[in-house]
Amino acid sequence: MKLRNITAVILSVFLVLSAFLPAAFAEGGSWGQINQDLGRGEDWRQIVDPETTAFRLGTAAPWAEDESVSIMDYGTYPSIDGSTVCVPLAMELARQHLGLPEEDPTGFVSFSTTPYAYERLIYGKPNPMSTLLSMNAVMDPAHPVDLILVTEPSDEELEMAAQEGCDLRYVPFCYDAFVFVDNTQNPVTGLTSAQIRSIYIGEIIDWGEVGGTPGSTILAYQRPKNSGSQTQMENTVMQGIRPVAAQQNYISDGMADLVQQIGNYSNAVDALGYTFLYYITSLYTNDSIRVLSVDGVAPTEENMRSGAYPYTVSYWAVYRKGDANTEAFVNWLVSDEGQEVVKAAGYVTLR
User: Which end of the chain has fewer surrounding CB within 10 Å, N or C?
Assistant: First the structure.
């Protein structure tokens, strides 16, 4: 593609989004939390036939102020937002159904991260940052988000939906492990569920109490309220017990932040944190962190499927009740063919 056309698209996106920019920049996004190449691998194969799929983009109309740029209608393909851990799946869905060239998925998949994705779906807000560079197109910036691929909702997000009268449907489409990580220099390679809860309510504060170096204070990192991993921590691990409020220095704004602090921070040997296994194996890697076993069980695929690993979780396809087109897309996602695509994106399928 000519540089002039790429520049025109980028400029046009910013002009089209002028009304949305404050919110968009405040929300940030998932791409800043990823340090791995998410391009299709050499063994990539086409599973879905883009010519016969029921889910495809609609028509393109010239953008009024620059006819070299188009505004693309979503057609029968849902507008998707979601959690950072689901970015590769959204890219693979676009490759499979839409037959996009490899220059497109990165711009087409514009995820705002978990709390903002729930907000957009519940309040009918659009995802105004999605583009198709190969077509010199921006996706319809007024089309509300139809589907989010996310971790489970927080109590606040459930309450938000209830207050708005938004009846949501939640469909699990894969497994993952919610994991605890420390630095490879730390001698501790595993913790029990009871020890983890005791650490995060402040009863255990010394690594020596859990098999580590005596006299070393545990630096227990947390995530902000309503982030996907913080919700998972509170719902799955703490089970209603409120963690001790972390000092500001020990709250990681993003998942990448947490990985860096545990892997690179000067006191990292004493740090403890939590995240999702898929994230630190596929999206943001660091050789200085270690995944801990929990109750003596490692978070392997086999242990996730069997339920032996205690913090096995699901990712969810969430949509509004009554949206028949998106419901059909989600039904496809959990079908045999859909699960094959989920597997191709590197996730642990439901079956």
Answer: C
Global pTM reads 0.89
C-alpha distance from residue 124 to each of 12, 144, 227, 261, 320 (Å): 24, 5, 20, 36, 10
Q: What is the dihedral of CA 277, 280, 282, 284, to 10 degrees?
A: 160
DSSP class per residue in 33-70: G--S--SPPTT----S-TTT-S-----EEEETTEEEEE
If you search the block for the tokens 């059909």, which residue do you land on? 328
**Token representation of residue 127:** 């995802």
Q: Which two tokens stand for residue 106?
A: 């990165």
Degrees, nearest 5: CA angle 267-300-30: 60
Q: Looking at this protein, which amino acid is placed at residue 315?
A: Y
CB-hemisphere CA count at 13 Å for 308? Answer: 11
Domains of the chain and CATH, by start:
3-150+321-349 (no CATH), 176-312 (3.40.190.10)
Tokens of 82: 């979601």
